[in-house]
Specification:
The complex is a heterotetramer of chains A (331), B (350), C (628) and D (377). Chain B is of the alpha/beta class and 350 residues long. Helix content of chain B is 33%, strand content 23%. In chain B, helix 4 packs across helix 5, helix 4 runs parallel beside helix 7 and helix 7 packs parallel to helix 8. Chain C folds into three domains: 191 residues, Dipeptide-binding Protein, Domain 1 (Dipeptide-binding Protein, domain 1, Alpha-Beta Complex); 160 residues, Periplasmic binding protein-like II (D-Maltodextrin-Binding Protein, domain 2), CATH 3.40.190; 233 residues, Dipeptide-binding Protein, domain 3 (Roll).
């Protein structure tokens, strides 16, 4: 097991290097750079620039080097000084900008992940145990609607329905009052209420997929001989479902977890804009648009690394869950 | 063959068992009124080719057939805790039937490789029945399991106990499977082709093992197979099944000496004369049991029967008839038409 | 600027007025907000205000006496000017009728040949941190900051004389300083109000930092900057610009504004989710009852990501004020929250969303010749059915129009406003042909040499141009013009602009027109700056004909000091525009709509939305109050 | 000794049927799948015949019908008698006080719904020029009058018929997934196959690429790739770009599956036998390996299509996808992205129903296919 983990860790390094190059390349791919967007933004406010001003700015931001030189400098600073560069847009170090929202982002992503699996596992099991029942169809149908409705639209529809019925607009996780006064116990119910919409919107987009995986896997496992063996032993249906089928059905579910994380990151970007969530997604999108490349690059890198780590963890979990893999790796 | 231990006491009686399977194309009656009795300490062989309904019958006893299957009739079992009880009347998911499964009736499946969950150790899976039925003490259960494992001839049981199925060979797994079935000392063991998946030498070992274990545990065995050779070795009595029906039933010796039903004779013939092409066909895929969906009226074996009587066999449905010496047979050619005109008639569906 | 001429002559004749203390009742005492009294750290309000005679009284006729307290709740897209313009205080300001009036300055005097301006300040006025505001702050700002370009902007045009030389600014005493030009500068005050606005910075805060910048001690300067506002800047240029030009965005920088950014953690970053501007306890304006302004204690901002969210918060009553699009007004009026809608006019030449700009300096020879051909522009204008187009564009709220000064603004003429607006496809086709285009076999016009003519139009993404193009394109196509459209991010557009890679632009980065060409000629003259999208990189070296004339006129305007002459030049420039129609528009200019929660009082009901007037700034947020 | 006669199998075809026709048989029994297949067939046919079925073209704008609700169809006349279905033309007043556009029916003239009426010209299948449309309006004199409109799903902000746009949008939205799935399919099989079949260094490299691509969130990828799309390209070129972008991201999952299958199949006896018999690697892959799991891939593909449809809507939302005047369902949904549209023109969400139906149908079809492809069920 340790050897397996070690081997995976070693493979992690070249992947990380490739990924950072790819990300940096992708981010600087669109035409223009931060100076052009900076000039554009200020021009819109009635300021004027000359060609020399712009050249000066480029020099100042270090944007006149070719992209690989910029990449090299970026990585050098990350490795040697833990410095992820400077956000042009915010006028601060990238890391401090990221830290603003990092915890909330991680918390939101984690909660959504837990929500997705917390909801879809039982539903998937239920649907498998009650295959072709009304409940199975109804839950699948709702799941599909959640998946088929684009996140942004679902968010707007839910917010609108809530607004029409309560007169309240739930934008963001914190109300103005909470932001003004800091978190207090009396705000907790409202805060939880505010969490619900993003949870539903971002959560449902992935839930359906997991439900279907779980359901299909459970059905597969239920058809296997060993469930018969267990039943013949006198095991209860619950034991068969949870001890035998679920355990085996979890494999693909676990290996899909890292993918879910990536979907959550992407899904939450669009949703977070619509619902004004103070998480990384919108920052990333603005950074991408305004070519604030170190900020964008770092966020994408962090997300990619999280997904990679997620993959690694799920592979390890898989090995731990499934003795066959465990032994195959040992041998 | 433990003729001495075979008392008159019946442990299991199957009366007119029917198993219907719902399929996309309609309901298929795969077991069409089976009657069987198994006595205490007796080994009953249930013989028939694949798909004749023998596995369905055995699973019906435990109530572990697929949801699509529905069993009718009666399966009376002499249960320790419940007295004589119709197993079919019990809720297939209920506590009562579960107290019978594994504890009083247990089962050995044909393919040991898939009968174990790959996720848990062998010990864990053998233990389970003990923990369910005998003791909640894990240490004790482990001891019991190890004991049984040793009994079934698993060398190095202590180490094997903590291994996973994929670390076992097929024969070893079958032993483990038998250990799992015997761990609660059941009164009835259903062995569903326990040796099919194994190679010949292992087969013999396993069969010997089962025989000796039956002696030790004093249980009855329902031995299901398509292989008459094995039956001869193992069983006290034999019931031959064809297309969801028992077509012949007799003590093992009798059936070998004096097979009556053309099907039985064919079966025995095929054992004796391996290599005869015409008979091989019987077991080839092409010659399998017809689709039971739209069965023609009359004897199910009519199409393939060399002794068929046109106008009788394809019109009337033969029933089991005593022909003496505990020998029963369902064949007009052997017994003559017992009904005459106006008997049980089924119109062909064509 | 209708009465600018009248106003200027008045200015020449008299040493200008001290501010209107007369409006304050005789013997009135000054009072302050309970907010400040409760804090009980600021002392007596009279001590915080300038001397009684120098206190500025907000006495516009539409104002009523308000009550203190409450919060003005706003939403923000993180844009800093959005928070800055409403609270901005310059030395002088425009009033609602378009006249310049003293603001931070108490008044000024001008010598006979308009070379020396003497600016008078209010005695006893204080920065928001309680330190005295004096002429030293103004003089230091010019000499240390502007002349050394520490704020990234340097000397503005208003401070340059006819030769382009910077003025000399000298302190006379604590409340007086002079601005001396090498040549007569008649328009200094108004140019100052448009170009620079403020003329000061808190020397006591920035002196050390600015000196370090000037001395080239970057590390030291950055450390000083961080000590002031807590932000770590990457370089001195960025820091100078941020702290001295975008100063209101940083906590701990004292201002003269009615509100200053909170210094409280979690509320002090304009990039944060939430931030607030709290009242300046040393604010120097009072109402006619002697109550120190502002009435409202705080302006609080919740950051949102788009216009739709601003609307939602407005609807649910979480936000008090917002400019809104016309199509959302019915939804607003239907909401349970009581919201008033006010309509302000603006200075755009036709609706910006329908302005079509051609790059008259486009590199391609064929295109260049075509775009510079008046017949082509004429044809492009008349090939659109303006009434149907306007109906689609604005759902019937706006009529068809042209890129011309709109009613009520300088240079308006009905003739111009309706020039080339008659729908005539056949006429357009004839004009295309006279412009040298030849109908090709595919039903679209080609250049005379047979090469394909495709009009490539670009725009900034997310501004609605795509929708406009969608309804405009069929008209062009019907007239035989093949066109393409691409909208992309602003940065890409600007990049292309600088590379002169743009051919034509719909809904430009910056539209043509403003309320006064005299005050702000930039957006009407080619090649002036990057923000003038519609001429690419054209300057006098490449311009010919009327365009060259226009550029020359602008240059002349820059150095002309005589107001009559200036207006004459301005009118000549307008005339050139009218004759040439370098830019087209298809729909009349739309108004700016303000949605204001009914609890907000003293909102300026009929205003003019213009950058010159600092957009919402002219509504004087310090005079607003809340009545539940 | 002929003890037994050969059993005559009544339904010989059942045993002789190919894998595909077996799948088809099973599929036909899956009610939901059959229904979905029918539904999809209707959708695709209506996209194919969009020119004919749609009463209006994409660019038949109308300021009068801008943002108007679905047209009300009358079945009875003023006296309550059953009548040939008709509609009224609209009239509009801008109320400056409430800023409301008051739309009402102009009841002075009736416009009857008629079938096979002439409208804008088009080429059926791009070949046959005609101006015949399935339905349209005629006035009381029986003449075609195109100033009055019948918009059964309402009109958008240009006054264009949403129903017509859904049909035309279907052309893009229903085919992009197929094309991009085909590209993904090709890439997935190719790279996954190479990776799984050859193993070793090649496998390692491809695995890393997959890992990298599937770790990068899709939005930056989309943004970067769509920024590379040159301006002023035609609709069809744009279409191509979008499919390429979508498939560029989509192939990795498939490649993984294929690789797994290859590794499993490589060990199968028949592959070994082929190898020993000296069959070339390529032939082995194409002739032996691919058919071995093609059914799986088809299922995977069917279930992947909804993802592409949704990907296209997401791209449109971010402004990276199709742009007006071209129409796709994503473009249509983007037009409902703001509160005002949802609140004032709820009918603009009708395209969503089509997206949901399509996604559902593909999923159920995929379910059915999966069941059908699995011989053990």
């Amino acid at each position: 097991m340790l050897k397996y983990i070690g081997k995976r860790m070693l493979l992690f390094i070249p992947t990380l290097i490739i990924i950072s190059v790819v990300i940096f390349f992708i981010i600087q791919l669109p035409p223009g750079d931060y100076v052009t967007s900076y000039v554009a933004a200020l021009s819109a406010e009635g300021e004027t620039f000359t060609a020399e001003d712009i050249a000066q700015l480029r020099l100042q931001f270090g944007l006149d080097d070719p992209w690989f030189v910029q990449y090299f400098n970026w990585v050098k600073n990350i490795v040697t000084r833990g410095d992820f560069g400077y956000s042009f847009e915010y006028g601060r170090s990238v890391w401090s900008v990221i830290m603003d929202r990092l915890y909330l982002t991680l918390a939101v992503s984690f909660v959504i992940l837990v929500f997705q699996y917390g909801v879809s596992l039982p539903i998937g099991i239920y649907c498998a145990n009650h295959q072709y029942s009304v409940g199975d169809y109804a839950l699948s149908f709702i799941g599909f609607i959640g998946t088929a409705t684009p996140n942004f639209l679902l968010a707007i529809i839910i917010m609108y329905v809530v607004y029409v019925n309560t007169g309240e607009v739930y934008l963001g996780l914190f109300s103005t009052e909470m932001l003004q006064n800091g978190m207090r116990w009396e705000y907790v119910p409202e805060f939880l209420g505010r969490c619900l919409i993003p949870l539903i919107v971002i959560g449902t987009s992935g839930t359906c997929g997991i439900i279907r995986t779980v359901r299909a896997q459970m059905l597969d496992e239920q058809a296997r001989q060993y469930t018969l063996t267990a039943r013949a032993k006198g095991c209860s249906e619950a034991t068969i479902t949870y001890k035998y089928c679920l355990r085996a059905a979890l494999n693909p579910v676990v290996s899909g977890m890292a993918g879910s994380l990536r979907t959550i990151f992407s899904g939450s970007t669009v949703s977070a804009i619509v619902m004004n969530l103070a998480i990384q997604g919108p920052v990333l999108l603005t950074a991408l648009k305004s070519q604030d490349m170190y900020l964008a690059g770092t966020i994408v890198l962090i997300q990619a690394v999280l997904v990679l780590v997620g993959t690694l963890l799920s592979d390890i979990a898989l090995a731990w869950l499934d003795p066959r893999i465990r032994f195959a790796e040992r041998g | 063959m433990n003729n001495e231990t075979a008392s008159k006491e019946t442990i299991l009686e199957i009366r007119d068992l029917k198993v219907n399977i719902k399929t996309d194309e309609g309901t298929l009656t795969a077991v069409r009124g089976v009657n069987l009795t198994i006595k205490k300490g007796e080994t009953l062989g249930l013989v028939g080719e694949s798909g004749c309904g023998k596995s369905l019958t055995s699973k019906a006893i435990l109530g572990i057939n697929d949801k699509k299957c529905k069993a009718e009739g009666e399966i009376i079992f002499d249960a320790e805790n419940l007295g004589r009880v119709n197993l079919l009347s019990l809720n297939p998911r209920g506590k009562e039937i579960r107290s019978v499964r594994g504890k009083q009736i247990s089962m050995i499946f044909q393919e040991p490789m898939v009968a174990f969950s790959p996720m848990y150790t062998i010990g864990n899976q053998i233990n389970e029945a003990t923990l369910l039925h005998i003791t909640r003490d894990k240490k004790k259960a482990r001891e019991i399991s190890l004991d049984v494992m040793k009994k079934v001839g698993i060398a190095n049981a202590e180490k094997r106990y903590d291994q996973y199925p994929h670390e076992f060979s097929g024969g070893m797994l079958q032993r483990a499977l038998i250990a799992m079935a015997l761990v609660c000392s059941p009164r009835l063991l259903i062995a569903d082709e326990p040796t099919t998946a194994l190679d010949v030498t292992i087969q013999a070992q396993i069969l010997e093992l089962m025989k000796s274990l039956q002696k030790d545990f004093g249980m009855s065995i329902l031995f299901i197979t398509h292989d008459l050779g094995t039956v001869a070795r193992m069983c006290d009595r034999v019931a031959v099944m064809y297309l969801g029906r028992i077509v012949e039933s007799a003590p093992a010796v009798e059936i070998y000496k004096n097979p009556q039903h053309p099907y039985t004779r064919g079966l025995i013939g095929s054992v004796h004369k391996i290599g005869t092409k015409a008979q091989e066909r019987l077991f080839s895929s092409e010659g399998t049991v017809p689709l039971a969906l739209n069965l023609p009226a009359g004897c199910g074996f009519y199409d393939r029967c060399s002794r068929r009587i046109d106008g009788v066999c394809n019109v009337y449905d033969p029933q089991l008839v005593d022909i003496g010496q505990e020998h029963q047979i369902a064949c007009f050619a052997c017994t003559g038409c017992p009904y005459g005109k106006g008997g049980k008639e089924e119109k062909a569906n064509e | 600027m209708r009465n600018i001429k009248k106003w200027l002559s008045l200015a020449l004749a008299v040493m200008l007025c001290m501010s209107a203390t007369a409006a304050l009742a005789e013997g009135a005492t000054f009072t302050e907000a309970p907010f400040l009294t409760e804090a009980s750290v600021y002392g007596d309000v009279a001590d915080r205000l300038p001397v009684a005679s120098d206190v500025m009284v907000e006495d516009a006729s539409y104002l009523t006496i308000g009550t203190y307290g409450g919060e003005l709740r706003r939403s923000a897209g993180g844009g800093n000017w959005d928070a800055g313009k409403p609270i901005e205080e310059g030395l002088f300001r425009f009033n609602v009728s378009g006249a310049v009036e003293p603001n931070v300055a108490k008044g000024y005097a001008i010598n006979d040949d308009a070379t020396v301006y003497t600016i008078y300040l209010r005695e006893g006025m204080k920065w928001s941190d309680g330190e005295p505001f004096t002429a030293e702050d103004c003089v230091w700002f010019y000499n240390a900051v502007c002349l050394n370009k520490v704020d990234g902007k340097g000397v503005r045009n208003c401070h340059k004389d006819a030769n382009g030389d910077p003025a000399v600014v000298e302190k006379v005493d604590d409340t007086t300083f002079t601005v001396t030009f090498g040549t007569p500068k008649y328009d200094f005050i108004e140019a100052l109000t448009v170009d620079l606005k403020w003329h000061f910075a808190p020397k006591h805060i920035f002196e050390e930092m600015v000196q370090a910048v000037i001395d080239g001690k970057d590390e030291e300067a950055l450390a000083a900057g961080k000590a002031i506002c807590g932000t770590e800047f990457s370089d001195v240029a960025k820091m100078g610009k941020e702290l001295l030009y975008h100063f209101w965005n940083y906590p701990g920088v004292p201002t003269l504004n009615p509100y200053v950014l909170s210094t409280e953690e979690g509320k002090n970053s304009i990039k944060g989710e939430y931030y607030e501007f709290v009242r300046n306890p040393y604010y120097w304006k009072v109402d006619t009852a002697g109550q120190q302004l502002p009435y409202i204690d705080k302006i609080i901002y919740t950051t949102v990501s788009n216009v739709d969210q601003q609307l939602m918060l407005l609807l649910d009553g979480t936000v008090d004020y917002q400019t809104v699009a016309m199509e959302s007004i019915p939804t607003i009026l239907e909401s349970e929250t009581a919201i008033n809608i006010y309509e302000w006019s603006g200075g755009d030449w036709g609706d910006v969303g329908t302005q079509l700009h051609f790059n008259l300096n486009v590199a391609d020879e064929h295109l260049n010749a075509l775009f510079n051909n008046i017949d082509f522009r004429h044809a492009m204008s008349i090939c659109v059915d303006r009434e149907e187009f306007a109906g689609l564009y604005s759902d019937g709220w706006l009529s068809g129009g042209q890129a011309a000064p709109q009613k009520g603004n300088q240079g308006y003429s009905e003739e111009w406003a309706s020039k080339w607006t008659e729908y005539d496809v056949d006429g357009a086709r004839k004009l295309f042909e006279s412009a040298g285009l030849v109908m090709g076999t595919d039903g679209f016009y080609d250049f005379a040499d047979g090469t394909d003519f495709v009009l490539n139009i670009v725009s900034v993404a997310d501004n609605g141009a795509a929708d406009t193009y969608k309804i405009l394109e069929p008209y062009f196509r019907a007239a035989g013009i093949k066109c393409t459209f691409k909208d992309s991010d602003r940065s890409n557009i600007d990049n292309d602009l600088m590379a002169n890679a743009i051919e034509a632009m719909l809904f430009p980065v910056t539209g043509i027109g403003d309320i006064s060409i005299v005050l702000k000629p930039n957006s009407m003259v080619p090649g002036y700056a990057t923000n003038v999208a519609w001429y690419g990189t054209m300057d006098e070296t490449t311009a010919t004909g009327d365009l060259l004339k226009l550029i020359e006129l602008k240059k002349e305007l820059d150095v002309t000091v005589d107001p009559d002459k200036r207006e004459e030049i301005a009118l000549q420039m307008l005339k050139l525009h009218e004759e040439n129609m370098w830019t087209l528009a298809y729909v009349e200019a739309s108004s700016t709509y303000h949605a204001v929660n009914a609890r907000i009082k003293n909102f300026l009901e009929q205003g003019v939305w213009s950058d010159i007037y600092r957009d919402m700034g002219i509504a004087h947020v310090q005079c607003w109050y809340i009545e539940e | 000794m002929a003890l037994f006669k050969k059993k005559t199998v009544t339904d010989e075809s059942y045993y002789l049927a190919s894998q595909w026709s077996l799948m088809w048989r099973k599929l036909k029994k899956h009610k939901l799948a059959r229904f979905s297949l029918g539904l999809l067939l209707i959708l695709y046919l209506s996209a194919l015949f969009a020119d004919f079925i749609a009463p209006y073209g994409l660019e038949e704008f109308s300021s009068l019908y801008k943002n108007t609700a679905p047209t009300r169809v009358y079945w009875t006349d003023e006296d309550g008698h059953l009548s040939r279905p008709y509609v009224y033309k609209l009239q509009k007043i801008n109320d400056k006080k409430t800023f409301k556009v008051i739309v009402s029916e102009d009841t002075s003239e009736k416009y009857y719904i008629s079938f096979f009426v002439p409208g804008i010209e088009y080429k059926l299948f791009g070949l046959i020029p005609t101006d015949m449309h399935l339905y349209g309006l005629v006035n009381e004199q029986g003449e075609v009058d195109r100033s009055a409109r019948i918009n059964i799903f309402g009109a958008d902000s240009t006054g264009a018929d949403i129903f017509s746009r859904i049909l035309f949008g279907g052309r893009v939205s229903l085919t992009i997934p197929f094309v991009s799935a085909a590209i993904s399919f090709f890439l997935g099989i190719l790279l996954g196959g190479i990776s799984g079949y050859f193993g070793g260094v090649v496998d390692n490299v491809i695995q890393r690429i997959i890992e990298v691509l599937s770790a990068i969130p899709s939005i930056p990828l989309w943004m970067a790739l769509s920024a590379a799309i040159p301006p002023g390209i035609s609709v069809s070129a744009m279409y191509l770009y979008i499919t390429i972008i979508l498939s560029f991201i989509g192939w990795t999952g498939l490649a993984r599956v294929v690789r797994g299958k290859f590794i499993a199949l490589r060990k199968e006896d028949y592959v070994m036998a082929a190898r020993l018999a000296g069959v070339s690697d390529f032939k082995i892959i194409v002739k032996h390996l691919v058919p071995g799991f093609l059914s799986y891939l088809i299922v995977d593909l069917t279930l992947g299509i909804p993802g592409s449809i949704l990907g296209e809507t997401s791209m449109s939302y971010l402004g990276l996808g199709m742009k007006a005047p071209a129409t796709s369902w994503g473009v249509l949904l983007k037009e409902t992205e703001d509160l005002v549209s949802v609140a004032q023109c709820p009918w603009k969400m009708i395209p969503l129903i089509f997206v949901i139906i399509t996604v559902l149908a593909f999923n159920f079809l995929g379910d059915g296919l999966r069941d059908a492809a699995d011989p053990y069920k």
